[in-house]
Amino acid sequence: MLVYPSGIQLSSAALRFLSRLLAARRRDRGTRWRRLSVHRQALLALAHLRCGHTYAQLAAGFGIGTTTAYRYVNEAVEVLAELAPNTAATVRSASRKAFVILDGTLLPMDRIAADRPYYSGKHKRHGMNVQVIADPFGNLLWASPALPGSVHDIKAARTHGIIDALADAEIRCWADKGYQGSGGTVRVPYRGRWDDLSAGQRAVNVSHAKIRAVGEQAVAALKAWNLLRKLRCSTTRITSLVQAILVPHLNASS
């Protein structure tokens, strides 16, 4: 396999942050020697998450075995995912914002036609449903555990308890029509054909769309990590991957 130098569109702060976490993990475990330093292991993991390189590609580039590359990436994902905020922590963070934006996205994945639970009728493809909360500036605050793609956004949000949690904390939330009937503090646009809406309702919908557009930046930031553009792993690992990718964003904005 040919090997060539490449770059990752991430700041050095993300590399230093993950390196510190891995160094702490090695101290806790009493690790004396590894094939790669914590700095190189962090770079290996970020290359996998951000660029979507396979374990074979990473192994060739870093001069290690494929199994070792798999173990190193999994360890990095574990230490990052452990820091992902739960619902309670997300609500505390959101309470300091003027409002939040709730949106759902489908993470595409490899599946056969028989895997109906993972097929999204809305997107006409297989994938996993992930709910995202963003602040008024489009920064990621929370990404939910992954559910099968056949789960609708409103059901997914209710399953995670985020709608009730926002309502209990009286945090205003903007969302699209997929959350119609959520109640609580969730605000959705008026339903109906454009010609059937009044001038006031049209104005509200236009304003609502502008706010939601900011929230879509958070979804775009999540999908900027190439690994999430076409998942080829077990469905049981996807939640950890999403949470691991979320943490560097939270660290950068803190």
- Shape descriptor: elongated
Radius of gyration: 20 Å
Strand content: 5-15%
What's the pLDDT, averaged over the residues? 91
Assign the CATH topology of the largest domain: Nucleotidyltransferase, domain 5
| Count of helical regions | 9
Give the SSE layout.
Blueprint: H1 12-29, H2 38-51, H3 55-62, H4 66-81, H5 87-94, E1 100-108, E2 119-120, E3 125-134, E4 140-143, E5 147-148, H6 153-160, H7 162-168, E6 173-174, E7 186-187, H8 199-223, H9 238-253
Parallel strand pairs: 1-6, 6-7
Antiparallel strand pairs: 1-3, 2-3, 3-4, 3-5
Helix pairs in contact: 1-2, 1-4, 2-4, 3-4, 4-9
Q: What report would you give on this structure?
A:
- With 254 residues, the protein is an alpha/beta fold.
- It has 2 domains: 12-81; 87-253, Nucleotidyltransferase, domain 5 (2-Layer Sandwich).
- Helices cover 47% and strands 12% of the residues.
- It has 9 helices and 7 strands.
- Strands 1, 2, 3, 4, 5, 6 and 7 form a 7-stranded mixed sheet that branches.
- Strand 3 (125-134) and strand 4 form a beta hairpin.
- Helix 1 (12-29) packs across helix 2 (38-51).
- The longest helix has 25 residues, at 199-223.
- The radius of gyration is 20 Å and the shape is elongated.
